[in-house]
Amino acid sequence: MSTTTHQSTSEQSKIELIDKAIALAQAGKGTGGPPHDQVGELLRAYYRHVAPEDLADRSEMDVYGAFAAHYKLAAERPQGTANVLVTAPSLADQGWSAAGHSVVEVVVDDMPFLVDSLTMELSRQLRDVHVVIHPNFDVVRDITGVLQSVTPVPDGSLQPEGEAVRESWMHVEIDRLPEGDDPDAIVEQIQRVLRDVREAVEDWQKMHSQIDEIVAGLRGDPPALDPEEVRQAAELLEWLGGEHFTFLGYKEYKLESHDGDDYLRAVPGTGLGILRADQDLSESFGRLPDAVKAKAREKTLLVLAKANSRATVHRPAYLDYVGVKTFDENGEVDGERRFLGLFSSAAYTESLMRIPLIREKAAAVLKRSGFDPRSHAGKALMDTLETYPRDELLHTPVDELAPMAEAAMSARERRALRMFIRRDTYGRYVSVLVYLPRDRYNTGVRERFERILQEQLNGESVEFTVRINESTTARVHFVVHLPKGDTIPDVDTAEIERRLTDASRSWRDDFTQAVIAEYGEEVGTTLGRRYAESFPEAYKEDFSPRTAAVDLGRLEAIRTESAQDSGLDLSLYEHLDAGPGEARLKVYRIGAQLSLSEVLPMLSSMGIEVVDERPYELEGLERSSMIYEFGLRYGRSLPKGSRELFQDALRAVWDGFNEIDGFNGLVLGAGLTWRQATVLRAYAKYMRQGNSPFAQDYIEDALRGNVDITKLLVALFEARFDPSRSGGADESGEEGLETRIMSALDDVASLDHDRILRSYLTHIRATLRTNYFQRGESGGPHPYMSFKLEPSAIPDLPQPRPKFEIFVYSPRVEGVHLRFGSVARGGLRWSDRRDDFRTEVLGLVKAQMVKNTVIVPVGAKGGFFCKQLPDPGERDAWLAEGVACYKTFISGLLDITDNLVDGVTVPPPDVVRHDGDDSYLVVAADKGTATFSDIANGVALDYGFWLGDAFASGGSVGYDHKAMGITARGAWVSVQRHFRERGIDCQTEEFTAVGIGDMSGDVFGNGLLCSETTRLVAAFDHRDIFLDPAPDPAASYAERRRLFDLPRSSWQDYDKSLVSEGGGIYSRALKSVPISEAVREVLGIDASIDKMTPAELMKAILQAPVDLLWNGGIGTYVKGESETHAEVGDKANDAIRIDGSQLRARCVGEGGNLGLTQAGRIEYVLYGGDAGGSSEDGGRINTDFIDNSAGVDTSDHEVNIKILLDRVVKDGDLTEKQRNALLAEMTDEVAALVLRDNYEQNLALANAVAHAPSLLHVHEDFMRRLEQAGTLDREIEGLPSRRTVRRRLDRGRGLTPPELAVLMAWTKIVLADELLAGDLPDDPYLGQDLTAYFPTPMRASFQQQIGAHPLRREIIVTQVVNDLVNGAGMTYWPRLAEETGASVADLTRANFVAREIYGSLPYRTELKGWDNRLDAALQTRMRIQMRTLVERASRWLVTHRRPPLDSQATVDQFAAPVQATMAQLPELMSGRELETYHERLAAYEARGVPEELARRVAVLEPAYMLLGIVEVAQREGLAPEEVARVHFALGERLGLPVLLQRIVALPREDKWQTMARAALRDDLHGVHTELTAQVLRGTSSDDTAPARIGAWEDGDAAQVAKAAKTLNQICAEDEADLARMSVGLRVVRGLLSG
Questions:
Q1: How many Cα atoms sit within 13 Å of 1187 on the Cβ side?
Q2: Rounded to an integer, what distance in angstroms lies between the CA atom of residue 993 and that of residue 1147?
Q3: Which pLDDT belongs to residue 729?
Q4: Are 894 and 941 contacting, i.e. CB atoms less than 8 angstroms apart?
Q5: Any residues with CB less than 8 A from the CB of 303 and at least 6 apart, and which?
Q6: Are the C-beta atoms of residues 405 and 385 closer than 8 Å to each other?
Q7: pLDDT at residue number 1129
């Protein structure tokens, strides 16, 4: 990767420009420019530190030209000189341009202060500087200064090498010189400055040496002065030499007297730095003015002052003057050693107590004041000195400083202006120190002060410094410089101070008086102080202080909880001379500013035109405050009473209660309140979610164009839902309003408008509840609205239509909650689909419906869209808004949901209900809301909702799905089943896998930890692609576990050293990914491919010929060939999605939702999954709702457990802490209960697949029945059409597992509805199913509470339905109901009794223990044997017992004797029945079934006859085994086993054949049983069974012989038909005695 990859675009552009300039230079033919072989590095060095934007508009010619010109200037430079050139380059003359600027070029020896001094000089000349380029080069010149070589300075180099000299090449671009401006004059001034710089730098060390020498002299040979003064002077000079003073010049002077005048003459040859040159020694030069003479002779050591000239080096300040007097042998002053320079910045920031001389002055001032240093006054004085101008401290004697400092200290504590004047010792300037209240200081005041001082003091120029800190006082220090030679005039200090005071008085002062007058002295003083400096100048120009006093009252009245909150107030008014429709609007704003682009749409949406706008920002307040004034124009005169409507609507927009759109136009256009308009807006939003063909703006037009109907619609809504109205039959009642609306609709001219208005009427009629009339805690309306609707009453909604739907609307969030039953649950999704989130939720709820068949509630799903999310980069703010929207959505649901208090339904307040009680509302986490359960439960707690923290499962006190790994473990049950069907134990045998997701995810992470033998060869998520073509299972498992245990991780965190050769981890952002041989082989990629784009690689991963594809991600990756990507609805994955036939993995585990479309699954089963290239089985897959149902199952258990335990807590039998502990204790058992459901559903599917071809006609018949009932839509559910079914019948193929899964789910849904509507859930026998739902600790301790569970009936039905369909098969009750005419409840009872009679449940449990030891197909066959037996027994029970079946009594009657007799059947059977038993036994044993188990399976086929046998035995008072012997012997004598085999072999290609076959079989068994009873009654019990048969036969030998012969003839042929079998049955029946 090149080094420029991460550079900014502008930096890259600069590099490219310089590269072009280099190419241009190297292509040049001339010989006078820079050497071609060096020009590249020189150009780059020249522009290295130039900002890219400074070269933005330059061409390569400009870039090269500037350097070439500079190079040319540097061609010859004698030592110690500077080359300076001022030019105005142009394309016409020089061939390059500096963006139209003039250019100053300098070549000089490198030294400090060059750039500062040069730009300072140009600024002094009032020339604007645009670009500065100042590279350094190491240069070699000959003795005459001719350039020999030039090289860039290496990084880190301090000194040039060899003979080279380091030079500074400065290129400064300034404003283009006007005509007549002399470049030579500029050059001359620059040369002067450069000389000063050179001299100062060259003599730097010498000047320091002078300081050291003077200090040494003062200490070694001090003058005859006060030792303390000498000490202080020495320390100060030493301090100055310690980097506190920039030395620029030094010279020595001698004090001489001639003719009564004193002269201070420079000593020739002593000058250093800028004073290096010797001065004029004429008689007049050096004569001291009278004012200075005394000071010159004064016996003080130091002279500290400001010079009367500005520095030309470093910074443009007046030079600081430090003079050290010299003394003759008599102790008289005889000269001076003078230093000029500038105090360094450190000198101004260092504490005065560290500065020699100043600290002594401070101590002296404090001593004079008499203040204790520890007292408040002492500390205040020291603080005043600390902030006192540092120059003043140096220059002012203590006698003068002390009273000024004390006065300044007092001034800082007062609100009055104070001024202090100090005259310069030498009369060159006046120092003026002004203290004034900080709120009075501004630039304007300071400029007025300057003018006054300059005028009063005859000043030539004024310098100033300002100090404003946290105190209430501002300090301004002015230095007024006088013209040279002028003396300081006498001034009236009091007058100047008065004038300064007046100058500081402003509009603010008048404002303060107005505020005090308006609000009284106490409040007014506070407000005045607060707002005194807040109003901007523009406001002051437009409004009087009295108006401002009123306006601040409006601002103060706006209440906010914190400084960051927002609020506003509005004032709509008309000028006295305003025309029709003209008005002014004043907006008082606290908080974030309003932009015009924000406000204009608000006003425009109400039909208002804004003609002007004036914003005024108030500054310095705790709360951000603005006043806006708008000029408004309406198309006509404002309607009466519209002012409040308008202001309320506008305020609602700003408060977030209202949106900006055309519905606001109804406020003035129809006279609606903003909330009434919002109701219409909310319905429009819902219509759009329901796929209305009309755009919102067209809906708005329809309402605005039919104002009268619009008003009637609103009136109907209010009449229907206003709790304060009783309703009636008059015109204001519902019926009257509907009549008026229908009549008015007849007059609507536009067909589209008519459809829109009628749709509004339909939706209002379909609305069952709303929170519109509720009030929040503040007494105002909710900032959102919710509507409960009956979708079946809205024909325009797409199918399927839920039973109930709640739509929540607000400007911040919109959401829907779809419920397909009164007791329903499902997750709430944070959707990213603004325009069709309902479509998304509807698609999800279909899956939820079928997924929820394993749990008590039916399917529900919710989704919300956040409409005002901040930038996702602001993660905290983004998430906070999402949480707020989620809470609003939850609140909208709870607002209109009933509560349960002590088992009694309590309707929500101020809600009119047009439906029955409806208190079951349970939600769950979903995409985007995985961690929101506690938030939802918190909202429910605030509402006092009866479900408590069962409202949203998975919270902090609940079952953590990720920690349990329950969703993935449930899906892994399906994976285990898929592998088991291939004869693979995926827990002990290695297998290859690819995946979608990463280890930080719940489903993917937990899933890839379910087996330690997983060889994950590839995976991808939304960030990265993981490739590990030959993983070590143990090492890779351990690394996946490490990643999963991290708080957050990605594939990039995977230990790269563990990745096998040829693998790697690659970002999806890359342009391409290298493909190794190992990766090609494991993913089945063509050998010619050596790299792929990330999308291509992910597509290859999806098509990899591996054992398992594990989906733990989000998105849809597999579709049907006939489906388009747009139909899939997952645009993000269009580039990588494949068809089901292209999916080569042998099986798929759907841990995530919607990973495959239903068409994709079916196609995969039929045509995909051929990992080896020769499989004809297709792929193995269930559906997502089968695989990942464990999550909802766990949540449902949690909810129902909490409902029960909360009642226990309320009754005082448990504490909250004990409840929580019990919940945690039961985690593993809850998981076991849930995983059992997953296991049973997989077995049910396996059973269904085993008989799918033979039962296709049954499945088709059932689907038709559901279609006719309006329950099922094949297209929506992905079930085959009738034509497709016919084709499959012809080909002998049945439904695929995904189709069977859907049909099984709908079987459960319909069955549950029917059972719940009946009395079956109240059957005491089914109480055991209720108990079995709960974990053992609850069964042991809370049996009574379990029986009283509020959802007892629903739990029983759920348990029963799942047990019935999983155990008996999905066709059990549809077939038997049609064949027997029995009710669903009777068939259910019969099945549950039959399975108890035959011990079906222990048998199934035992078979489970043989997983991976017996062939899966064999296990399925063994299970189906028991299922068939139970089904036939169920048929027998509904035929032979009067409904309703006494379940327990029947079990008590049959279970023990039937099971005991079953165990003896091998000893009781005879003849062909016994032979076939032994054949079955041998077959099972041959396939590895243990003998004991094989015996029990082999007897299942004849065991059906035991019901009749036991019944006869009990009726006749005989032992069942005695009856059985006779029964089997009789059957053998007559050849009934063969007849039965022929009947069973009859075709069942349609339901009629199936019913006929079943009838013949049941009739034969019935006749056989009756004949057995006849034999028993007519023979001696002392005889053996054969003897008794013989005795019976002797009684009618001819008829029996004839019957046996006829039956033998009928069964002689292999092919059986219904006619012969019917004759055979008649023959047998003929043996019965009358």
A1: 30
A2: 10
A3: 46
A4: no
A5: 295, 321, 322, 323, 324, 325, 336
A6: yes
A7: 82
Q: Which residues fall within 8 angstroms of residue 217, CB to CB, at 6 or more apart?
A: none
Contact 1571, 1565 (CB under 8 A): no
Check residue 288 and give its pLDDT. 63
pLDDT at 3: 44
Output the six-digit token pair for 403: 């009273």
Cα separations in angstroms, 898 against 753, 864, 893, 947, 1490:
37, 22, 10, 11, 58
Alpha-carbon distance of 782 to 764, in angstroms, equals 20
Query: What residues are paired with 767 via a beta bridge?
Result: 789
Q: Tell me how far apart the alpha carbons of residues 664 and 811 are, in angstroms, rounded to a whole number.
A: 13
Q: Is 861 a catalytic residue?
A: yes
Enter the DSSP assignment of 490: P
Query: What kind and span of H or E run contains 166?
Result: strand 165-174
Q: Classify burial at 783, counting beta carbons within 10 Å of its beta carbon; exposed 0-12, middle 13-18, buried 19 or more.
A: middle
Alpha-carbon distance of 89 to 477, in angstroms, equals 45
Cβ contact 1130:1160 at 8 Å: no
- Dump pLDDT digits (tens) for 950-974: 898 878 888 888 899 999 999 999 9
Read off the amino acid at residue 603: L
CA atoms within a 13 Å half-sphere pointing along the CA-CB vector of 566:
12
> Which residue stretches of the chain have pLDDT < 70?
1-7, 279-292, 294, 506, 563, 726-732, 1171-1176, 1539, 1543, 1551, 1614, 1624-1625, 1634
HSE-CB of 1273 using CA atoms within 13 angstroms: 7
Residue 907's CB is within 10 A of a number of other CB atoms, namely 16
**Six-digit token pair at 325?**
């007097």
Question: What tokens does 440 get?
Answer: 């009075």
Place of tokens 């008048």: 510
CA-CA-CA-CA torsion sign (798, 802, 806, 812): negative
| Cα–Cα separations (whole angstroms), residue 26 to 39, 59, 61, 64, 75 | 7, 16, 12, 10, 19
Long-range contacts of 958-961 (CB under 8 A, 24+ apart): 958/933, 958/1198, 958/1202, 958/1223, 959/1194, 959/1195, 959/1197, 959/1198, 959/1223, 959/1227, 959/1230, 961/1002, 961/1191, 961/1194, 961/1195
Whether the CB-CB separation of 668 and 638 falls below 8 Å is answered with yes
Give CA separation, 17 vs 10, 75, 94, 1284, in Å: 10, 26, 20, 68
How far is 263 from 286, CA to CA, in rounded Å?
5
Predicted local distance difference test score (pLDDT) of residue 5 = 46
Distance CA 954, CA 827 (A): 11
1341 with 1196: CB under 8 angstroms? Answer: no
> Which residues face 572 on adjacent strands?
585
For residue 1494, the SS3 value is helix
Radius of gyration of the chain (CA): 50
* CB-based contact 1095:1070 (threshold 8 Å): no
Q: Are 443 and 466 in contact (CB under 8 A)?
A: no
CA distance 1096 to 1086: 12
For residue 1123, the SS3 value is: coil
Token pair for residue 932?
């929101």
Instruction: Output DSSP code: residue 797.
Output: S
- The answer to whether the beta carbons of residues 936 and 923 sit under 8 Å apart is yes
Catalytic residue among 361, 861, 1119, 1202: 861
β-pair partners for 141: 147
List of residues 6+ apart from 756 with CB closer than 8 A = 694, 698, 699, 702, 703
Question: Alpha-carbon distance 403 to 110, whole Å?
Answer: 49
The answer to whether 253 touches 336, Cβ cutoff 8 Å, is: yes
Handedness of CA 751, 757, 761, 762 (dihedral sign): positive
